[in-house]
Amino acid sequence: MESDNRGIAICLTLILAVALSLMPLSGDWIVWKPNFLLLMVMAWIMRWPDGLGIFFAAAVGLLADILLRMTPGHSVMVFALCAGAIALVSRWAKYLSMLQRMLLVALIITLVAVLEASLFQIYGRPSGIEHLPMKILLSIIVWPFIDRLVARLQPRRS
Amino acid sequence: MRNVLNRSSALLRKLLTVTLFAILLMIVDNFTPWLKPAYSAADNLVRPLYWIANIPLRVQEWSAKSLTPRSEIESDNLRLSKESLIYHGQLQRMSDLAAENMRLRRLLNATELLQDSVLVTEVIGVSANPLSHTLTIDRGTTDNVFVGQPLLDAEGLMGQIIAVHKTHSTALLITDSNHALPVQVLRNGLRSIAEGRADYNRLNLRFVSPTADIREGDKLVSSGLGGLYPAGYPVGTVLSIVSRPGDNFLKIDIDPSAEIDRSRHLLLLYTSRDSAEGLVE
């Protein structure tokens, strides 16, 4: 029953992340928009490392590829690497303060953005790396809300 | 210690499997058309999510409409009536000029200008990926939309249709980094290629030599070369020209005429050439 509730919570939070990702913004803002799906996946894996992992991140990455009309496999790889990094530190990440977790997320997002920029350069497309600082800043700003939302939706242990 | 090593090794195996799968997907997508049907089906499946994402925008539009004072609507109506009168007057003169132009072209044995018709459409979704400039419109195969069809807004060329579904279509915008269109300077007919660079407010003009007659403020229109876009539709205005010593070509920035990231109602263009080629039923 507890697992069912968690499944519904995951689906609802992913739909919220998708809606935020697809919400139309003007050209000046869209380049700074945080990757809400990635942040939501990171929050869930950080909170429930035993249940969710690389395959979950890869599946959401495939959904992101379809939704964002990226080359199939692009977000699969990026999300999976991100999940791998989170899974490596997940044992002690739960003991970190919010500020420390925000810094950890900023570090992972930076690494992911550099990887994405390299992939874009392989495709011969603009990488958008010049917007990276603002994107990371906005991701850090929205992180506490996403983290708290996921924490609240976690079933309490008796 | 052994547990930690086992866990890390399992993690690495999973990561390797997923990475290989992702690389395989990229290769298959790049070199074969096998994923195209799957993508088309998936696009239809995720359509409700676009509808959900557009709810705040619709609420904002609805509230803006509902809360506009009556006096403002009346003054807008008056202004639009005056504008309509002015445009009708100009149109009468235009039709006279068009007829004269046609007669002169016949005298010169040149081909006649194509008569274009349009279909109004609404944007129902935009790409959430800032580096991929595409949008979704509410017209599909039922409205005879076809791949390659030009898309306009009230100010100029917006892009072309790249995928058509039953009730909606996807358009690639002229600002996408994968898009290029042949243009010419309105003042002197100088031809070039306007290329997108993943920036909604800028285009690049390619292959213009440092000795070419081009100035800041020059208007650019589609040249009709390449056969995709009809000639004469506004594309943009030359914003800046940079000439670096040793470079073979000028670096020219273009400000697009169309309101690429703001227009909500667009026009699908049907030319008589499309009808002749059987693209329109």
Describe this structure in words.
The complex is a heterodimer of chains A (about 160) and B (about 280). With about 160 residues, chain A is an all-alpha fold. Chain A has helices at about 1-20, 25-30, 35-45, 55-65, 75-95, 100-125, 130-155. The radius of gyration of chain A is 15 Å and the shape is globular. Chain B has three domains: about 1-65, no CATH class; about 70-115; about 120-280, Beta Barrel (Thrombin, subunit H), CATH 2.40.10.340. Chain B has helices spanning about 1-30, 35-45, 45-55, 55-65, 70-105, 270-275; strands spanning about 115-125, 135, 150, 155-165, 170-175, 180-185, 190-195, 205, 220, 235-240, 250-255, 265-270. In chain B, strand 4 and strand 5 form a beta hairpin. The longest helix of chain B has about 40 residues, at about 70-105. The relative contact order of chain B is 0.11. Classes of the chains: A mainly alpha (about 160), B alpha+beta (about 280).
The helical percent of chain A reads over 70%
Helix segment tally of chain B:
6
User: What is the general shape of chain A?
Assistant: globular
Mean pLDDT of chain A: 82
Q: What's the domain count of chain B?
A: 3
Q: What is the CATH topology of chain A?
A: Arp2/3 complex 21 kDa subunit ARPC3
Overall geometry of chain B comes to globular
CATH architecture of chain A: Orthogonal Bundle
- What is the H/E order of chain B? HHHHHEEEEEEEEEEEEH
Order of helices and strands of chain A: HHHHHHH
Instruction: Tell me the name of the CATH class of chain A.
Output: Mainly Alpha
Q: Evaluate the radius of gyration of chain B.
A: 24 Å
- Give the largest chain-chain interface (CB within 8 Å): A-B, 41 and 48 residues
How many β strands of chain A by DSSP? 0
